[in-house]
C-alpha cells in the first residue's frame, strides 16, 4: 500500500476475540475496520465500522464483503481461500497469502511441508480413512486434517483397542512425543528485511479440555533453548516466505530436542500477554503488516508476564455468562482482565483472559495461579 489514512478500509474475516483486540489497536491509528462473521452475536459486532453476517467459507460471500477494501486479513483459518484470491485479483492487499492459509488449513499439508523442508517435527503418517493405525506403534496422536481447534479434533490413542479415535475422516497420525514443555514463538514478518520474533512462551494446558490454561513469558528454559526456539520458528516463516503473523507451536522433548507441532497464520492465544508486556502487541503488529507499515519493537516492557485464559467451567450450562473473581483481580497491581463480549458460555469456551505483569517471575506466576483459581465464568441456572 502506498498510502494510509482514515479512509483506508481494512477487512477482517472472522469476528471473534482476536479481531476484537485488533480493532482496539486500530483505534489508535484512526483506522477503519470492517468485519465479516457468520454469527450475528460476534464479539466484534458493535466495535466495527461495518459488520457483515455471512459464511466465511463461501467464496462469493467473501469476495462481495471485500469488494472496495484496501486490505484484508483473517482472525480464523476456516475461510475461503478462493474468495481471498478473488480479492487479490481485484487489487486488495491480502495478508496472509491465500496459498499459505490453504496449506495451514490442512494439518497433513503442514506436516508434509515440514518433512520436505527438513524441519524437525514428530514422525507421522497420513491416513485417508479408517486404515491401520498401528504403523507408528502406540501411543499415537490422531489429528483431524481439517477443522480442529482449541483441543477439538485431537485425541491420544493408547493402544490398538482404544475406541476414542475419529472414524471416517482424513487425519494425521503422529508418534507421541515425550514432552518436557510446550512452547510457542510468534513471528511477525512484513518482508525479508522486517521480521520480529517474540520471546518463547511456555504453555500449560487444562487436561480436561486439552485447551491452554496458562501462558508464561519468558518460558522457564535455558537461553540455548530460547535461541533455538526463535531460530526454528523464524526458519519456518522464511521457508514459507510468509507475510503476516505466524504462531509456531513447539515441543521441547525430554531429550532437549525442539520439534514443530503446528502453526497458525494469525494472532494467537499464546501472544495475548503482549498487549501489556511488550512494546508492540501482536495485534498492533498484525495491523501494521496488513497496512504494510513498519513493524514495532517486540522488546518486553516488564521482566515477566503470564496470561490466564478465562474458560467456561467444565459443568457450565449454555447460557448468558456470569463472571466471578473480577473484583479481586482488578484490585491487584499488575493484573489486567480482558473480557471478549461473548453472549453465551459453554464448557471450556474462551470467554476472556487475564494478564499479569511484573519484574519478579516467581511472583507473577504465583499471582497468575491465584487468578486461575479465583476468576471463573459460568451460567447462572434459572
Jot down its keywords.
about 375 residues, alpha+beta, Dna Ligase, domain 1, D-amino Acid Aminotransferase, Chain A, domain 1, 3 domains, five-stranded parallel beta sheet, 10 helices, about 25% helix
| CATH H-level homologous superfamily name of the largest domain | ATP-grasp fold, B domain
Write the CATH architecture name of the largest domain. 2-Layer Sandwich
Radius of gyration: 20 Å
Enter the CATH topology name of the largest domain.
Answer: D-amino Acid Aminotransferase, Chain A, domain 1
Enumerate how many helices there are, as a single number.
10
What CATH first level of the largest domain would be assigned?
A: Alpha Beta
Low-confidence stretches: none
Number of strands: 20
Instruction: Determine the mean pLDDT.
Output: 94
Distance between the termini: 53 Å
Summed up:
Residues 111-291 form the ATP-grasp domain. This protein is of the alpha+beta class and 382 residues long. Helices cover 25% and strands 30% of the residues.
Amino acid at each position: 500500500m502506498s498510502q494510509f489514512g482514515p479512509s483506508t478500509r481494512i477487512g477482517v474475516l472472522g469476528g471473534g476475540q482476536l479481531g476484537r483486540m485488533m480493532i482496539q489497536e486500530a483505534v489508535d491509528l484512526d483506522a477503519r475496520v470492517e468485519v465479516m462473521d457468520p454469527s450475528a452475536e460476534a464479539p466484534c459486532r458493535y466495535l466495527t465500522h461495518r459488520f457483515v453476517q455471512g459464511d466465511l467459507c463461501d467464496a462469493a460471500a467473501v469476495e462481495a464483503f471485500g469488494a472496495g477494501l484496501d486490505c484484508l486479513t483473517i482472525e480464523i483459518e476456516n475461510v475461503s481461500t478462493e474468495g481471498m484470491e478473488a480479492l487479490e485479483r481485484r487489487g486488495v492487499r491480502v495478508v496472509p497469502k491465500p496459498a499459505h492459509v490453504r496449506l495451514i488449513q490442512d494439518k497433513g499439508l503442514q506436516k508434509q511441508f515440514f518433512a520436505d523442508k527438513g524441519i524437525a517435527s514428530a514422525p507421522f503418517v497420513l491416513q485417508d480413512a479408517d486404515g491401520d493405525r498401528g504403523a507408528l506403534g502406540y501411543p499415537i496422536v490422531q489429528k483431524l486434517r481439517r477443522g480442529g481447534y482449541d483441543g477439538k479434533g485431537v485425541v491420544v490413542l493408547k493402544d490398538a483397542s482404544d475406541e476414542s479415535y475419529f472414524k471416517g475422516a482424513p487425519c494425521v497420525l503422529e508418534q507421541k512425543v515425550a514432552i518436557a514443555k510446550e512452547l510457542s514463538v510468534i513471528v511477525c514478518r512484513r518482508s525479508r528485511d522486517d521480521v520480529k520474533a517474540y520471546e518463547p512462551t511456555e504453555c500449560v494446558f487444562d487436561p480436561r479440555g486439552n485447551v491452554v490454561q496458562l501462558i508464561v513469558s519468558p518460558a522457564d528454559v535455558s537461553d540455548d533453548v530460547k535461541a533455538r526456539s526463535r531460530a526454528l520458528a523464524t526458519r519456518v516463516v522464511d521457508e514459507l516466505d510468509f507475510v503476516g503473523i505466524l504462531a509456531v507451536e513447539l515441543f521441547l522433548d525430554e531429550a532437549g530436542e525442539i520439534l514443530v507441532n503446528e502453526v497458525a497464520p494469525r494472532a494467537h492465544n499464546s501472544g495475548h500477554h503482549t498487549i501489556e508486556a511488550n512494546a508492540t502487541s501482536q495485534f498492533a503488529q498484525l495491523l501494521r503488516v496488513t497496512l504494510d507499515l513498519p513493524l514495532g519493537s517486540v522488546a518486553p516492557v516488564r521482566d515477566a508476564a503470564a496470561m490466564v485464559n478465562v474458560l467456561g467451567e467444565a459443568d457450565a450450562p449454555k447460557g448468558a455468562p456470569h463472571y466471578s473473581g473480577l473484583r479481586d483481580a482488578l484490585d491487584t497491581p499488575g493484573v489486567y482482565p480482558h473480557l471478549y463480549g461473548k453472549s453465551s458460555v459453554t464448557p471450556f469456551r474462551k470467554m476472556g483472559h487475564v494478564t499479569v505483569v511484573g519484574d519478579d517471575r516467581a511472583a507473577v506466576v504465583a499471582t497468575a495461579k491465584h487468578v486461575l483459581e479465583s476468576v471463573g465464568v459460568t451460567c447462572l441456572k434459572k
